[in-house]
## 1
Amino acid sequence: MPKEGITPRAKDYAQWYLDIVDKAELADYSPVRGCMVIRPHGYALWENIQAGLDRRIKATGHQNAYFPLFIPQSFLQKEAQHVEGFAPEVAVVTRAGGEELTEPLVVRPTSEAIIGHMFAKWVHSWRDLPVLVNQWANVVRWEMRTRPFLRTTEFLWQEGHTCHATEEEAEEETLKILNEVYADFVEKEMSLPVYKGLKTDKEKFAGALRTYSIEAMMQDGRALQAGTSHNLGQNFARAFEIVYQNRENQPDFCWTSSWGVSTRLEGALIMAHSDDEGLVCPPRLAPIQVVVVPIYKGEEQRPGVMEAIRRVVGGWEGRFRVKVDDRDQLTPGFKFNEWEVKGVPVRVEIGPRDVENGTAAVARRDIPGREGKQLVQQAALAGHIAALLEDIQQGLYDRALRFRDAHTRDVSSYEELKEAVETGFARAWWAGTAEDEERIQAETKATIRVIPLEQPGGSGRCVLTGRESTRQVLFARAY
Amino acid sequence: MPKEGITPRAKDYAQWYLDIVDKAELADYSPVRGCMVIRPHGYALWENIQAGLDRRIKATGHQNAYFPLFIPQSFLQKEAQHVEGFAPEVAVVTRAGGEELTEPLVVRPTSEAIIGHMFAKWVHSWRDLPVLVNQWANVVRWEMRTRPFLRTTEFLWQEGHTCHATEEEAEEETLKILNEVYADFVEKEMSLPVYKGLKTDKEKFAGALRTYSIEAMMQDGRALQAGTSHNLGQNFARAFEIVYQNRENQPDFCWTSSWGVSTRLEGALIMAHSDDEGLVCPPRLAPIQVVVVPIYKGEEQRPGVMEAIRRVVGGWEGRFRVKVDDRDQLTPGFKFNEWEVKGVPVRVEIGPRDVENGTAAVARRDIPGREGKQLVQQAALAGHIAALLEDIQQGLYDRALRFRDAHTRDVSSYEELKEAVETGFARAWWAGTAEDEERIQAETKATIRVIPLEQPGGSGRCVLTGRESTRQVLFARAY
């Protein structure tokens, strides 16, 4: 049943997204232009996202650290492409402690500059390499058009920064992050399939040698860049003089990488899975996985029902994230509605008849209405719920994958490409230039999202120029 | 044995602290005035501090959220005392996205103003109360004299903000945080006894009705304010119009509280426990609790020793945070030294004779040299280490408590007070004014740290004015 205050997707997808963010109490607008407030339910989801990423980042050998929020303006200017990319969108502190600063301080839009400076201080010999650090932090980019989670002036993210002896090691690191950290997390925990690939020069990070990204498809067929990993070559090492003595005792520039994902991921999660009834959340990341709603009429039924619930949920600690909704003045219907909007994957109802029969009604959020509801023996409930959570997790992935495959078209002419990007991704052979990409973007609003790592082999005619090419690319309109 | 590069405490306590921070690789200086870089070992310690606090904050019913870094300048001005306290030390963004801002944005020095604004938006009725949120964030205060962890321009902290229907509830919250969250954490996990009490009006938070704090004693007898909890009365509710309909359907101002601890705690931990050989870290917070160092001569002994170590540590995952230091080119002595400086509580050594005899040598960091070393059967090792970690945790607390008691003196004259604050705390009856406090501070550099919650009862003569008083206070020089 469509919910009050939620615009149906079919009617206005953009407004539907904003309604979900609002009604599920994920975020709110702040009085500061383009900055959002992440509300407790939205932040609990972010904490689970952080935990899943942090575990993978540490498992691949990285250590967390923390670097200053402020970057001296001159530092940003040391790498020519970097400053060109970021200078237009920085916020600048010019006054502090009641005085004008002699050198303005940029609020970090990303931390290559300040971390590059520290790497130069720490790295002396090949024995100091690799340096593998990660930072959880806030960054600021002065964006013109903002949207909660998807694009905000201030956002939260992690940014990894590494320093290596050779190009091969930097490249290996860059791809390891893309595959073992980002794609693995998004597919397994967010239930969202991604295309992995290389960005074209036009789309790469300001200052990078190569940028890789993972791209997910939203329910309107648009792409969302869910994470990027950059091989920075020796560009930043030259700019910040990160020099080490190699095994031959010769000074050499390091090879560095950087990579990040942000609160944007939460926007992707919301947009990819939710429906007209509210948030739909993959169980592994759901702040509350199971809500238990007592059903009773009058005060005399209450104690028996609550006692049964206490007994049932008694052994669940550490197994599920559970909330027993024992609020007194609210009807079960009101509670069902609230937890559906907030995306709790499983709801358990226990009433007087269940107390008698030793049963419970179990409803799954991903299949609304009666079809998703089942009567289960209390004795079998924990096992049933564990299996159900896994089933929902996998089901969301499968559904997203089917949707993506159905909305990814192989195109062989520009006309077909134009049509395909109206509703999804277009896969095409490509031999065009950056100018060609500009033209397509101007005419169709679509960009090359990635040159996929997985290529079919062989060759074909470029969708625009007709020239023979050995590589395919994915075009899409993007968030 | 004193370590290279660490100035002995007795010679120069301030320099000793800086040397520990540097040699244990906890933090480094950055090119941004007063901002530090928290290095991986220091950040891992901070993560453990965060985890212990976050668990207690959630267990007392609070939820995490996130509010903007920037605060419109006009917001800070809404509460008169608040702006007076913080305006001189704020950093201000005046330019962003290439343009001058029409209203400058203050980088948050604390978030009462922005959160007060959001509370006003969220709270309508008594049913919405209490609101209990916490934020992990960075804040900026433009300090003149900075010192790693203890006072830095940018620092990391948590700030709790709550909103209540009555003064009693706000007061109860303020004290609950002081007792159940802050004092409990610092005493049980940081092994540091604290005095809990009320700040005088002169020392309270800018805009608060009442400020409570916990104060710890460092090894030079100075006080370090380790956490503060403020009952803000209705001051911020009036300034930001946080109004609710009470049970009688009348509009009323809320009562709010705020409370915070910061990376300063890490400075307190370092200063309170460490010695001339480096960091000493309470086991519950140590990034590495047990380091295992293989002892062998030549390549032929190595495999047997490493195999024994693998077998021994095999079952320790999830039980201890362990590092096996299998670096090849370094001598055991070099490794011992490094992990002593970095404050690992327990070191295990296994050599060829241990392999034969099924033994291991176990050294404890808190008792340096031979006295702290024991030979233990490998079969009993895990149990031995578990008990040892507990023993070290408690031993550090006991030692700090003995030191504090030995350096807290009851004083009954101003002369005695002056003498006592040279080496520790002075406990005195007090009936003076804010001007009297100023005078004492000017003459002795000591301030009233707290009016302890635990009072002896009865009365005595004020140490300065001679007037009869029913309350005692604690004077000390402070960090």
Note: The mean pLDDT of chain B is 96.
## 2
Amino acid sequence: MKSDLAESLQYLFCPGSVAVVGASSTFGKWGFNIFNRLTSSHPKAKIYPVNRSADTILGHKAYPDLLEIPDQVDMAVIVVPTDSVPAAVQECVDKGVKAAIIVTAGFRETGGEGSQLESEVLKIARKGGIRIVGPNCMGHFNTAVDLFTAGPVGIRRGPLALISQSGNFGEYILERGTEKGAAFSKYVSSGNEADLTVEDYLEFFAEDEETKVICAYIEGIKDGRRFFKLARQITKKKPFVVMKVGRTAEAARAVLSHTGSLAGSDAVHDAIFRQCGVIRVEEVDELLDIALALIRQPLPRGKKVGILTAGGGFGVVATDACRRYGLEVPALSEETVQTLDKYLPPRWSHSNPVDMAGTFEGNFGCIGNLLKTDDFDAILLIGSIGFPIERLDYAATMAEIDTGEYAKKLMEEELRLVDGLIERIDRHQKPLIISSIAGVNKSPALAKLEDNGLYAYRTPEDGAKVISYLVRYSEYRGLIK
Amino acid sequence: MKSDLAESLQYLFCPGSVAVVGASSTFGKWGFNIFNRLTSSHPKAKIYPVNRSADTILGHKAYPDLLEIPDQVDMAVIVVPTDSVPAAVQECVDKGVKAAIIVTAGFRETGGEGSQLESEVLKIARKGGIRIVGPNCMGHFNTAVDLFTAGPVGIRRGPLALISQSGNFGEYILERGTEKGAAFSKYVSSGNEADLTVEDYLEFFAEDEETKVICAYIEGIKDGRRFFKLARQITKKKPFVVMKVGRTAEAARAVLSHTGSLAGSDAVHDAIFRQCGVIRVEEVDELLDIALALIRQPLPRGKKVGILTAGGGFGVVATDACRRYGLEVPALSEETVQTLDKYLPPRWSHSNPVDMAGTFEGNFGCIGNLLKTDDFDAILLIGSIGFPIERLDYAATMAEIDTGEYAKKLMEEELRLVDGLIERIDRHQKPLIISSIAGVNKSPALAKLEDNGLYAYRTPEDGAKVISYLVRYSEYRGLIK
């Protein structure tokens, strides 16, 4: 059974050929969106449009039905009207298609007749041995082979996989993630899950070598027992971050009319997730922030946080946030005070949070030593890497020195030191969480860290929150005694 | 006493002439930063550099001491070494300067000798009748007269005033606020508050016609009784949003070494803030988000939220978030269902959250009617204004229609409808909180709303949170029975 599933999903994510049943030249239609997204992303697969009344679709020869295509079709995307879906699925079976994505809506989520139609479609698929994504979904992608039936333009290839029961919210997660620098391996909008479910994709992504962290937006779980068993196995190796919505009665009602799912008891979900090591988040930014941290940061071996800042206010804010999230902010040992004294001017705070009092020179020496000392299990660094070069621009007209040259030297020095930092993180197996205060324009040093899977967060509070999630996952993994 | 204070602060924020004592040509020094910031922002005030050993500073004739300046000096910025500060303040007194900003650090925040020095400075100032900002601060600004001794480049003139006891964190709030579209009236980094305190600036900003919302980052309050009395008066007319840090013992320790303040009991602060209508926030993004909402949004007359979305997932997420923040998400009345039926295709959700099921056409009709109906006290709109034009670009190469033209029409239609929306918000006195899913590139419609003081938030969750703060403030103001 498992190998069958893996084989079907392999056809779904790495097809040799794809047909779009209901492909259209009319801008704005789903049949246009999907076909255009597919062909303009230049996948390694061959793409065939199926349309009864057109000779060509966006420059591609169109076929009146699947059976006319003079080639094997591994995977089909179905975007015909609701009533025509059963016939389209039957055609897929007749053609020997292995997996189909039914984008069309109007099934179980509408109740009554829609539910019946969904059962009918499922029956045809089961009988014909074809696996179904959806219906009422928005597509999928696999960046490794440039295959996109969904996803905003600009998605980069990387280690995050995403399963979303909401097509719109899935696109939103992908878009907001891309803004934050996230890069993705595979994505699927799972819709009503008439056949393939979150559990199936989860099982597949667990074995996917391109995927290091699995993320999911879930409205309802079909097979709780299987989900639990799978998650418990997977989270021992791969982090699994879940945004499970429908917590409240009002939202559960909305879930039912959205994907026809039962949201289920929230307390039960909380308990299940905790027991099987699923990292449950509340908000979209948390989902992305924690997933990004899990790509490359070592898991902390305790909850003692050392805070290093370029200014006192940041330290106070970060300390409050760490304590609010259940972390410890212990004092510096006498040894660490002496070590930091070597790098900092006399006016530094001499305590944790370490306020470097406006100096940037001792920065990297301090970070290196905080990563090394046993005083702390994680380091929260605020605003002391990534000097915002644009802040110097205004001075350029007036200053008697070349500020451009000064800024360039600063950047180069930072870039030079980043490698050493990465080596230290690995050697001491201690997370270094950076809250950038540089705004939207990222410095070369922060960009280099990002290229190495080490992301900067927006605020001191977000950085503290990320550490608290890492600590909880580390506790689950038994790394904290 | 009050008029004296107002007069001194008038000299601080609207001086006819300013001296920078310790002005420098050396890039990176405070004496350079402040003087350069001042002169490059082209204030209406005259600017004089004071420097014992230079003839000119950045092209301006320098004076060996204040008394040599052949003009009245209303305000001085002092950036000389710590030990020279008392003499500099005495010089200010002798010259008849009305207010001085002491940027220099090394006073009470360092304990012992520093505290003594601070007392000495205060004694000179009190005796000479001069008011002092700082010491250990980072400057101020008044956008109305282009006077900047602090603040990141790019600050826009607008209705927010900010008082920050942390210079670095103040700059950060200003920078992050500017990123979010916030515009500011006045700012002061209040530092150790040897003389002028948060209470003084608060009293002044309360009467400032340029200021509609007062924000503050506070580590410790000097005169709790006065603060309470002032805040209780002010919050009846002007919202006052406070980020009070040093909640935990660890952070309170950090506060002491930062600005030498006593953080005080957090429970007491909570109670005081609640009783005098201060809107207390936890995080920097909350401070800015709620302040932006208070500029123009009407206060809700209850906690019933109507949610309108472009896709089902957003509705589920927003509903959970509203409930989490103590808001109600009631059902639609039969009348509202019938009204919305006129604007939406049959497949819309027919319930609250209103899922428009992918259509954009009925958008503005729905919003208008949700603002009008008594079903709700506030509307949360997610992703249905501000169509991200860049999403259409990728289609442009392949489509047989002109997507650029299509997008342009969409934008124009949105822009045309925005005016009606603003009129409805005012007429029905109901807040319309928008969560944009358009990413960093703002659409013309969202930009136009922003020009009218109506801001879009980043996520559905942030939008819900903002409404919950508006509800609490409205309760305090007695607008919710």
Note: Chain B has three domains: 2-133, 151-296, 305-476.
